[in-house]
Amino acid sequence: MTAGKRSLTTAAVALVCAVTVLGAPGMAHASQAKPNPTPSPSTTDSTGSADSTDSPGATTASTEELEAVRKKLDRLYHDAAVATDAYNAAEEKTERQSAEIVELAREIVKGKERLEKLKDLMGAAARAQYRGGGLPPEVRLWLSENPQDFLDSADRVRQGQLASKGVLAEMERTQQDLELYAKDASTQWKKLEANRKARAEAKKEIKKQIAAAEELESQLEQEERERLAELEEQAARKAQTAWLGSGVLDEISGKASEEGRKAVKFATDQIGKPYEWGAEGPGTYDCSGLTSQAWSFAGKGIPRTSQEQWKRLDRVDVKDMRPGDLIIYNADASHVAMYIGDGAIVHSPRPGRTVTIAGAGSMPILGVVRPDA
Question: Residues 6 or more apart from 320 whose CB is under 8 A from it?
Protein backbone atom coordinates (compact mmCIF):
# COMPACT_ATOMS: atom_id res chain seq x y z
CA MET A 1 0.00 0.00 0.00
CA THR A 2 1.35 3.45 -0.91
CA ALA A 3 2.37 5.84 1.88
CA GLY A 4 -0.62 7.60 3.43
CA LYS A 5 -3.21 5.37 1.73
CA ARG A 6 -5.68 3.79 4.14
CA SER A 7 -7.68 0.81 2.95
CA LEU A 8 -11.21 -0.20 3.89
CA THR A 9 -9.69 -2.78 6.20
CA THR A 10 -8.44 0.05 8.42
CA ALA A 11 -11.89 1.63 8.27
CA ALA A 12 -13.58 -1.61 9.28
CA VAL A 13 -11.24 -2.08 12.23
CA ALA A 14 -11.87 1.49 13.34
CA LEU A 15 -15.62 0.87 13.11
CA VAL A 16 -15.48 -2.23 15.28
CA CYS A 17 -13.50 -0.35 17.92
CA ALA A 18 -15.83 2.64 17.80
CA VAL A 19 -19.04 0.62 17.99
CA THR A 20 -17.70 -1.48 20.84
CA VAL A 21 -16.93 1.66 22.83
CA LEU A 22 -20.41 3.02 22.10
CA GLY A 23 -22.29 0.05 23.59
CA ALA A 24 -24.95 1.44 25.95
CA PRO A 25 -28.46 0.57 27.20
CA GLY A 26 -31.04 1.35 24.52
CA MET A 27 -28.42 1.26 21.79
CA ALA A 28 -27.64 -2.46 21.84
CA HIS A 29 -28.09 -2.90 18.12
CA ALA A 30 -25.36 -0.35 17.46
CA SER A 31 -22.85 -2.29 19.52
CA GLN A 32 -23.31 -5.62 17.79
CA ALA A 33 -20.59 -5.19 15.19
CA LYS A 34 -20.50 -7.64 12.32
CA PRO A 35 -17.23 -9.29 11.19
CA ASN A 36 -14.87 -6.90 9.47
CA PRO A 37 -15.24 -6.75 5.70
CA THR A 38 -12.30 -8.45 4.03
CA PRO A 39 -10.55 -6.32 1.41
CA SER A 40 -10.68 -7.77 -2.06
CA PRO A 41 -7.34 -8.85 -3.56
CA SER A 42 -5.72 -6.90 -6.34
CA THR A 43 -6.80 -8.06 -9.78
CA THR A 44 -4.24 -10.13 -11.64
CA ASP A 45 -3.73 -11.03 -15.28
CA SER A 46 -3.30 -14.51 -16.71
CA THR A 47 0.38 -14.53 -15.78
CA GLY A 48 -0.39 -13.86 -12.14
CA SER A 49 1.05 -10.31 -12.23
CA ALA A 50 -0.76 -7.44 -10.56
CA ASP A 51 -2.97 -5.31 -12.79
CA SER A 52 -0.90 -2.36 -13.95
CA THR A 53 -3.85 0.01 -13.39
CA ASP A 54 -3.60 -0.38 -9.59
CA SER A 55 -0.97 1.15 -7.40
CA PRO A 56 1.54 -1.44 -6.16
CA GLY A 57 0.15 -3.11 -3.05
CA ALA A 58 -3.10 -1.03 -3.07
CA THR A 59 -6.45 -2.69 -2.34
CA THR A 60 -9.88 -1.40 -3.29
CA ALA A 61 -13.10 -2.15 -1.51
CA SER A 62 -15.57 -4.48 -3.09
CA THR A 63 -19.20 -3.53 -3.50
CA GLU A 64 -20.11 -5.97 -0.72
CA GLU A 65 -17.63 -4.31 1.64
CA LEU A 66 -18.93 -0.84 0.88
CA GLU A 67 -22.50 -2.08 1.33
CA ALA A 68 -21.52 -3.35 4.79
CA VAL A 69 -20.06 0.08 5.59
CA ARG A 70 -23.25 1.78 4.32
CA LYS A 71 -25.38 -0.32 6.65
CA LYS A 72 -23.04 0.38 9.57
CA LEU A 73 -23.28 4.11 8.88
CA ASP A 74 -27.06 3.89 8.69
CA ARG A 75 -27.14 2.28 12.13
CA LEU A 76 -24.78 4.84 13.64
CA TYR A 77 -26.73 7.79 12.25
CA HIS A 78 -30.00 6.15 13.24
CA ASP A 79 -28.77 5.83 16.83
CA ALA A 80 -27.64 9.44 16.72
CA ALA A 81 -31.17 10.39 15.61
CA VAL A 82 -32.69 8.44 18.52
CA ALA A 83 -30.36 10.20 20.95
CA THR A 84 -31.21 13.55 19.31
CA ASP A 85 -34.91 12.91 19.91
CA ALA A 86 -34.14 12.12 23.56
CA TYR A 87 -32.13 15.35 23.83
CA ASN A 88 -34.89 17.43 22.24
CA ALA A 89 -37.53 15.87 24.50
CA ALA A 90 -35.44 16.59 27.61
CA GLU A 91 -34.84 20.14 26.39
CA GLU A 92 -38.56 20.71 25.87
CA LYS A 93 -39.39 19.31 29.32
CA THR A 94 -36.66 21.42 30.91
CA GLU A 95 -38.09 24.60 29.42
CA ARG A 96 -41.63 23.70 30.50
CA GLN A 97 -40.58 22.78 34.04
CA SER A 98 -38.49 25.92 34.39
CA ALA A 99 -41.55 27.97 33.47
CA GLU A 100 -43.68 26.05 35.98
CA ILE A 101 -41.13 26.64 38.74
CA VAL A 102 -41.07 30.36 37.98
CA GLU A 103 -44.89 30.46 38.14
CA LEU A 104 -44.92 28.56 41.42
CA ALA A 105 -42.36 30.97 42.85
CA ARG A 106 -44.63 33.87 41.90
CA GLU A 107 -47.58 32.18 43.60
CA ILE A 108 -45.51 31.62 46.74
CA VAL A 109 -44.53 35.30 46.85
CA LYS A 110 -48.16 36.36 46.39
CA GLY A 111 -49.26 33.87 49.05
CA LYS A 112 -46.75 35.20 51.56
CA GLU A 113 -47.85 38.77 50.91
CA ARG A 114 -51.50 37.76 51.41
CA LEU A 115 -50.63 35.91 54.59
CA GLU A 116 -48.92 39.03 55.99
CA LYS A 117 -52.00 41.14 55.24
CA LEU A 118 -54.25 38.58 56.91
CA LYS A 119 -52.00 38.59 59.97
CA ASP A 120 -52.26 42.37 60.12
CA LEU A 121 -56.07 42.12 59.95
CA MET A 122 -56.09 39.53 62.71
CA GLY A 123 -53.86 41.72 64.85
CA ALA A 124 -56.16 44.70 64.36
CA ALA A 125 -59.22 42.57 65.21
CA ALA A 126 -57.56 41.24 68.36
CA ARG A 127 -56.66 44.72 69.52
CA ALA A 128 -60.20 45.98 68.88
CA GLN A 129 -61.66 43.03 70.78
CA TYR A 130 -59.33 43.67 73.69
CA ARG A 131 -60.34 47.31 73.87
CA GLY A 132 -64.05 46.37 73.81
CA GLY A 133 -63.70 43.52 76.36
CA GLY A 134 -63.88 43.60 80.17
CA LEU A 135 -67.34 43.30 81.78
CA PRO A 136 -69.76 40.54 80.74
CA PRO A 137 -72.37 41.61 78.15
CA GLU A 138 -75.34 41.44 80.62
CA VAL A 139 -73.58 43.80 83.08
CA ARG A 140 -72.72 46.24 80.29
CA LEU A 141 -76.39 46.17 79.18
CA TRP A 142 -77.55 46.97 82.74
CA LEU A 143 -75.09 49.85 83.07
CA SER A 144 -75.84 51.25 79.65
CA GLU A 145 -77.83 54.51 79.54
CA ASN A 146 -79.13 53.63 76.06
CA PRO A 147 -79.94 49.91 75.70
CA GLN A 148 -80.44 50.25 71.90
CA ASP A 149 -76.96 51.67 71.45
CA PHE A 150 -75.62 48.75 73.45
CA LEU A 151 -77.48 46.22 71.30
CA ASP A 152 -76.21 47.87 68.11
CA SER A 153 -72.72 47.77 69.52
CA ALA A 154 -73.10 44.09 70.46
CA ASP A 155 -74.24 43.29 66.95
CA ARG A 156 -71.13 44.97 65.55
CA VAL A 157 -69.01 42.93 67.94
CA ARG A 158 -70.63 39.73 66.74
CA GLN A 159 -70.03 40.74 63.15
CA GLY A 160 -66.42 41.47 64.01
CA GLN A 161 -66.06 38.08 65.63
CA LEU A 162 -67.49 36.38 62.54
CA ALA A 163 -65.13 38.41 60.37
CA SER A 164 -62.23 37.35 62.55
CA LYS A 165 -63.19 33.71 62.11
CA GLY A 166 -63.31 34.27 58.37
CA VAL A 167 -59.85 35.81 58.41
CA LEU A 168 -58.55 32.87 60.42
CA ALA A 169 -60.02 30.41 57.93
CA GLU A 170 -58.50 32.37 55.05
CA MET A 171 -55.14 32.36 56.80
CA GLU A 172 -55.29 28.57 57.13
CA ARG A 173 -56.19 28.17 53.45
CA THR A 174 -53.38 30.48 52.41
CA GLN A 175 -50.92 28.59 54.57
CA GLN A 176 -52.04 25.30 53.04
CA ASP A 177 -51.68 26.78 49.55
CA LEU A 178 -48.14 27.92 50.36
CA GLU A 179 -47.22 24.46 51.58
CA LEU A 180 -48.68 22.92 48.41
CA TYR A 181 -46.85 25.40 46.16
CA ALA A 182 -43.58 24.67 47.95
CA LYS A 183 -44.11 20.92 47.58
CA ASP A 184 -44.94 21.28 43.87
CA ALA A 185 -41.89 23.48 43.34
CA SER A 186 -39.68 20.88 45.02
CA THR A 187 -41.12 18.12 42.82
CA GLN A 188 -40.68 20.18 39.66
CA TRP A 189 -37.13 21.02 40.66
CA LYS A 190 -36.27 17.32 41.02
CA LYS A 191 -37.80 16.61 37.60
CA LEU A 192 -35.87 19.53 36.16
CA GLU A 193 -32.59 18.17 37.49
CA ALA A 194 -33.41 14.69 36.17
CA ASN A 195 -34.15 16.10 32.71
CA ARG A 196 -30.95 18.11 32.75
CA LYS A 197 -29.03 14.90 33.41
CA ALA A 198 -30.97 13.08 30.68
CA ARG A 199 -30.22 15.90 28.27
CA ALA A 200 -26.51 15.76 29.12
CA GLU A 201 -26.41 11.99 28.62
CA ALA A 202 -28.25 12.25 25.30
CA LYS A 203 -25.86 14.97 24.15
CA LYS A 204 -22.91 12.75 25.01
CA GLU A 205 -24.46 9.82 23.14
CA ILE A 206 -25.14 11.95 20.05
CA LYS A 207 -21.55 13.13 19.90
CA LYS A 208 -20.23 9.60 20.29
CA GLN A 209 -22.38 8.16 17.52
CA ILE A 210 -21.66 10.99 15.10
CA ALA A 211 -17.94 10.90 15.89
CA ALA A 212 -17.85 7.16 15.20
CA ALA A 213 -19.62 7.62 11.87
CA GLU A 214 -17.35 10.49 10.85
CA GLU A 215 -14.28 8.50 11.85
CA LEU A 216 -15.43 5.59 9.71
CA GLU A 217 -16.08 7.82 6.71
CA SER A 218 -12.74 9.56 7.13
CA GLN A 219 -10.95 6.21 6.69
CA LEU A 220 -12.33 5.79 3.20
CA GLU A 221 -10.51 6.90 0.08
CA GLN A 222 -12.15 9.49 -2.15
CA GLU A 223 -13.09 6.88 -4.74
CA GLU A 224 -14.60 4.70 -2.03
CA ARG A 225 -16.62 7.62 -0.65
CA GLU A 226 -18.00 8.33 -4.11
CA ARG A 227 -19.00 4.70 -4.58
CA LEU A 228 -20.54 4.69 -1.10
CA ALA A 229 -22.64 7.73 -2.02
CA GLU A 230 -23.80 5.90 -5.15
CA LEU A 231 -24.82 2.90 -3.06
CA GLU A 232 -26.82 5.16 -0.75
CA GLU A 233 -28.62 6.68 -3.73
CA GLN A 234 -29.26 3.26 -5.24
CA ALA A 235 -30.77 1.98 -1.99
CA ALA A 236 -33.05 5.02 -1.78
CA ARG A 237 -34.13 4.70 -5.42
CA LYS A 238 -34.81 0.99 -5.00
CA ALA A 239 -37.04 1.61 -1.97
CA GLN A 240 -38.87 4.49 -3.69
CA THR A 241 -39.43 2.43 -6.83
CA ALA A 242 -40.88 -0.44 -4.79
CA TRP A 243 -43.15 2.00 -2.93
CA LEU A 244 -44.41 3.60 -6.13
CA GLY A 245 -44.75 0.18 -7.72
CA SER A 246 -47.36 -0.72 -5.14
CA GLY A 247 -49.70 1.78 -6.80
CA VAL A 248 -50.00 3.84 -3.64
CA LEU A 249 -49.54 7.12 -5.49
CA ASP A 250 -52.64 6.42 -7.58
CA GLU A 251 -54.71 6.61 -4.40
CA ILE A 252 -53.12 9.78 -2.98
CA SER A 253 -55.05 12.82 -4.15
CA GLY A 254 -55.52 14.99 -1.07
CA LYS A 255 -55.16 18.75 -1.45
CA ALA A 256 -53.18 20.82 1.03
CA SER A 257 -55.03 23.01 3.49
CA GLU A 258 -54.16 26.71 3.69
CA GLU A 259 -52.00 26.03 6.74
CA GLY A 260 -50.45 23.03 4.99
CA ARG A 261 -49.41 25.16 2.01
CA LYS A 262 -47.74 27.63 4.36
CA ALA A 263 -45.90 24.83 6.13
CA VAL A 264 -44.71 23.32 2.84
CA LYS A 265 -43.57 26.75 1.63
CA PHE A 266 -41.55 27.30 4.80
CA ALA A 267 -39.96 23.83 4.70
CA THR A 268 -38.99 23.99 1.03
CA ASP A 269 -37.54 27.47 1.53
CA GLN A 270 -35.00 25.85 3.88
CA ILE A 271 -33.61 23.53 1.18
CA GLY A 272 -29.82 23.58 1.19
CA LYS A 273 -29.45 24.48 4.88
CA PRO A 274 -27.28 22.05 6.88
CA TYR A 275 -28.50 19.43 9.32
CA GLU A 276 -27.54 20.07 12.94
CA TRP A 277 -28.82 17.98 15.83
CA GLY A 278 -31.02 19.89 18.25
CA ALA A 279 -31.37 22.82 15.82
CA GLU A 280 -34.63 24.62 15.05
CA GLY A 281 -33.31 27.17 12.58
CA PRO A 282 -33.00 29.62 11.16
CA GLY A 283 -29.64 28.51 9.73
CA THR A 284 -29.64 24.80 10.58
CA TYR A 285 -32.23 22.13 11.41
CA ASP A 286 -32.61 18.59 12.59
CA CYS A 287 -35.51 16.57 11.17
CA SER A 288 -38.18 17.46 13.73
CA GLY A 289 -36.80 20.97 14.15
CA LEU A 290 -37.67 21.57 10.50
CA THR A 291 -41.20 20.15 10.70
CA SER A 292 -42.08 21.82 14.01
CA GLN A 293 -40.85 25.22 12.82
CA ALA A 294 -42.64 24.86 9.49
CA TRP A 295 -45.96 24.27 11.25
CA SER A 296 -45.25 26.99 13.78
CA PHE A 297 -44.82 29.35 10.83
CA ALA A 298 -48.19 28.14 9.54
CA GLY A 299 -49.75 29.07 12.89
CA LYS A 300 -50.00 25.61 14.41
CA GLY A 301 -47.82 24.60 17.34
CA ILE A 302 -46.87 20.90 17.31
CA PRO A 303 -44.62 18.72 19.51
CA ARG A 304 -40.88 19.23 19.10
CA THR A 305 -39.74 15.64 18.52
CA SER A 306 -40.61 13.06 15.86
CA GLN A 307 -41.64 10.56 18.52
CA GLU A 308 -44.02 13.01 20.20
CA GLN A 309 -45.36 14.09 16.82
CA TRP A 310 -46.19 10.45 16.17
CA LYS A 311 -47.78 9.99 19.60
CA ARG A 312 -49.81 13.17 19.86
CA LEU A 313 -50.88 14.23 16.36
CA ASP A 314 -53.87 12.76 14.55
CA ARG A 315 -52.98 9.83 12.29
CA VAL A 316 -54.20 9.34 8.72
CA ASP A 317 -53.79 6.54 6.20
CA VAL A 318 -50.99 6.89 3.67
CA LYS A 319 -53.56 6.88 0.85
CA ASP A 320 -55.30 9.87 2.49
CA MET A 321 -52.24 12.03 3.08
CA ARG A 322 -51.97 15.51 1.64
CA PRO A 323 -49.13 18.06 1.32
CA GLY A 324 -48.16 19.35 4.75
CA ASP A 325 -48.77 16.04 6.49
CA LEU A 326 -45.82 14.53 8.32
CA ILE A 327 -44.47 11.08 7.47
CA ILE A 328 -42.90 9.29 10.42
CA TYR A 329 -40.14 6.81 9.62
CA ASN A 330 -38.61 3.75 11.30
CA ALA A 331 -40.24 1.49 13.87
CA ASP A 332 -39.07 3.77 16.70
CA ALA A 333 -40.35 6.99 15.05
CA SER A 334 -36.79 8.33 14.95
CA HIS A 335 -37.18 10.38 11.75
CA VAL A 336 -39.81 12.69 10.31
CA ALA A 337 -40.32 14.43 6.97
CA MET A 338 -43.00 16.60 5.39
CA TYR A 339 -44.99 15.31 2.43
CA ILE A 340 -45.05 17.88 -0.39
CA GLY A 341 -46.99 15.97 -3.05
CA ASP A 342 -46.27 13.75 -6.06
CA GLY A 343 -44.67 11.08 -3.87
CA ALA A 344 -41.99 13.44 -2.54
CA ILE A 345 -40.91 14.75 0.87
CA VAL A 346 -38.74 17.55 2.17
CA HIS A 347 -36.58 16.69 5.17
CA SER A 348 -33.33 17.27 7.02
CA PRO A 349 -31.70 13.83 6.72
CA ARG A 350 -28.67 13.52 9.00
CA PRO A 351 -25.28 15.02 9.94
CA GLY A 352 -23.26 15.92 6.89
CA ARG A 353 -26.37 16.46 4.77
CA THR A 354 -28.60 19.42 3.99
CA VAL A 355 -32.36 19.96 3.85
CA THR A 356 -33.43 18.30 0.62
CA ILE A 357 -36.25 16.71 -1.37
CA ALA A 358 -36.43 12.91 -1.50
CA GLY A 359 -38.82 10.12 -2.32
CA ALA A 360 -41.48 9.55 0.33
CA GLY A 361 -40.93 5.79 0.12
CA SER A 362 -37.13 5.91 0.24
CA MET A 363 -37.17 5.01 3.93
CA PRO A 364 -39.34 2.59 5.94
CA ILE A 365 -42.63 4.40 6.68
CA LEU A 366 -44.16 3.96 10.12
CA GLY A 367 -47.20 6.15 9.47
CA VAL A 368 -48.58 9.58 8.67
CA VAL A 369 -49.81 12.32 11.04
CA ARG A 370 -51.75 15.51 10.34
CA PRO A 371 -51.02 18.64 12.41
CA ASP A 372 -54.16 20.46 11.25
CA ALA A 373 -56.68 17.63 11.33
Answer: 252, 254, 368
